[in-house]
Amino acid sequence: MNTKNNSVAVVTLFLKKSKSLYHKISERIGHSNTNDCRNRRMVAVIECILNQNARDAGAATFPAISTSILDLCKKHDIGILQMPCPEIYALGFERERKPGQSIRDALDTPKGRQCCRKISVDIVDRIEIYTDHGYQILSILGGNPESPGCAVHVKDGRLLPHSGVFMKELEDELYKRSVKIPFIGMRDYDPELFAQDIQQLKSVFS
Fold it and tell me: Which residues does 181 contact at the CB level (< 8 Å), separation at least 6?
């Protein structure tokens, strides 16, 4: 009886794993049971790109949404995965910190990094759910060069040390899991630089 039960359990487990493997392979080669018009392409963006109200006082460039990025995503049918603001998550909306301490310094503490790491784990978990089902995450869109949490400074495909604390933690988590996604900084504080970043994003989407 036990032998029979064990055999049934082994067969059941084999069938489950086979079904899961078949599903993943089918998704990766473009076959899917999802019979709709989705194109399976997405971009991960920091919260303030879609909600400038999340920015620190004096840092908002638009009334609400970075319409240039949103319009580009709409034009190329790119889905959007929004990431939470690490500054609000770690320090609260008012960016509470010690007198004289910068937001960057407040984030670059064991507690601040732990918060950024926690967000990063959650984000990469979500990314892997999509990529395991054949979706593409084309890029991770970070913030302005001076952003404490989300600045993006890239050289040879890797973020430099003075990139934002959250961006660095996110890159580390992606690296641990062998997930390769390019980072692009959206420098919306300067119209000319922002136009260059939009052009770069266009080339990624095309």
Answer: 44, 127, 137, 138, 139, 140, 174
